[in-house]
């Protein structure tokens, strides 16, 4: 599921707390916004193969 909630990319410099928005720009300072959710996985995960194997064994 794609997250539509975005956070101001410059909130650490310009705001006292994160500013969330649904638009491409921050409504307070005009800086671009970025997706607030972290990436669901890292394709270069060196331990992914082992984690998936362990998950299959424990089911």
Automatic annotation (TrEMBL):
Q: Which domain of life is it from?
A: Archaea
Q: Does the keyword rRNA processing apply?
A: yes
Molecular functions per Gene Ontology: snoRNA binding
Keywords for the protein's UniProt record, in alphabetical order? Ribonucleoprotein, Ribosome biogenesis, rRNA processing
> What biological-process terms (Gene Ontology) are attached?
pseudouridine synthesis; rRNA processing
Give me the Gene Ontology terms describing cellular component: ribonucleoprotein complex
Sequence segments annotated as region (Disordered)? 28-59
Q: Does the keyword DNA-binding apply?
A: no
Function as written in the Swiss-Prot or TrEMBL entry: Involved in ribosome biogenesis; more specifically in 18S rRNA pseudouridylation and in cleavage of pre-rRNA.
Family according to the record: Belongs to the NOP10 family.
Q: What is this protein called?
A: Ribosome biogenesis protein Nop10
Q: State which gene encodes it.
A: nop10
């Amino acid at each position: 599921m794609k997250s539509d909630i975005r956070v101001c990319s410059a909130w650490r410099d310009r705001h006292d707390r994160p500013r969330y928005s649904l638009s491409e720009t921050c409504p307070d300072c005009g800086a671009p916004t970025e997706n607030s959710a972290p990436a669901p996985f890292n394709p270069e995960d060196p331990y992914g193969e082992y984690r998936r194997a362990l998950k299959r064994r424990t089911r």
